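Q: How do we represent a protein-ligand complex in a form that can be generated token by token?
A: Start from the inputs.
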Amino acid sequence: MIFKQTLSNFDPKKFLKLYWQKKPLLIKQGYPAFRNPLPAKKLLAIAGNPTAEARVILEKGGERAWELRHGPFTKNTFKRLPSSHWTLLVQGTNHWNKALQLLLEDFYFIPQWRIEDIMTSFAVRGGNVGAHLDNYDVFLLQAEGRREWRIGTKPILEDDFLPDYEVKLLKHFAPTKTFILEPGDILYLPPRIAHHGIALDDNCITHSVGFRAPALPEILDDYLTHLMCAIDPNLRYADPELMLSKESGLINPKALNKIIQLIQKNINNPAQIKRWFGQFVTQNKYSQLLQAGEEITLSELKERINTGEQLLKNAASRFSYIKEAKKIFLYANGEEYILPLSMLPIVQLITAKTAVWQKELPKMLSYKKFLELLVELVCAGHFYFSDV
Ligand code: SIN
Ligand code: CO
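Then emit the structure tokens for the protein with succinic acid bound:
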């Protein structure tokens, strides 16, 4: 059984009102007596996997100041590193560690489509990634050792980085607050708040629960690409009402209005935007972690659940849904499932948790529509049977 720790000393409602996207918050002992589910040995092993996204940043003692190396890293890589001033960063550790995936559920008071992943850092004394800013909200959970955080108070609006380094370091950093975080403490930072975290101990581990907020260029790039696949290629400008004009060089206002309308009518389509958005925000950037589905029939699925097999959600499957008057659009890693509104309690159950809904599962087995959906989700690799 995986030990589930609970976020404490924290009021999500108050947090959303006063701090989320507004100002930093130190949550002292957010996880009292925190037990780190991903100690250094396990983290270093993940960093050795070619499918993991791992980086090492050496402030000093590398080939140059602020050297950035990319994984995978072997045991030998770490043996050859200096005794201080380096950090290992591993992205998406919740995909590799079930307990971290469960911990991520404590942050589901924020919509899942806004959640990116957990990044875990391991540092030796003095290890740090420099004074920088991130474009996203982050909860920095101290897991082992202590880290000193120096932070600014106001978001920095302009990008102004030191040139010539492989890591983005702020040219100007004037911290206004300093905190020393111990295991179980959490520091929340809104986007673009300057911060600098320095490891005070040799085994300093921090889990960063990071969020995503799509930037307009990303939104337009993906939406317009999506649209290009769906649009009728024969829709074209036409002007049967063309009138004689002496100004053959002029693009007249009527022609311009037609173009504006053609674009507006075909791009600004709320129904299409909503469904594209569901697909867009549930896309998974870790395609290497997606699981192959298991071909299963409805009766096999029922039998395996009845015999007590655990059905788990793949941590790499991102779920979200859109509710409409008569339908639900359920999204899993960019795939769309159109369901009747009567299935709302099931969709809520499926998306709410990774494994806890297992308790409710046997009760639902008589509901055919539920089983049919589960079969689809198992075949697509979003759910899988596990013996843990
Ligand atoms: C770290 O854990 O060392 C860095 C995390 C961050 O500053 O975003
Ligand atoms: Co940061």
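Residues 12-211 form a domain with the Jelly Rolls fold (CATH 2.60.120.650). Residues 298 and 371 are 6 Å apart (CA to CA).
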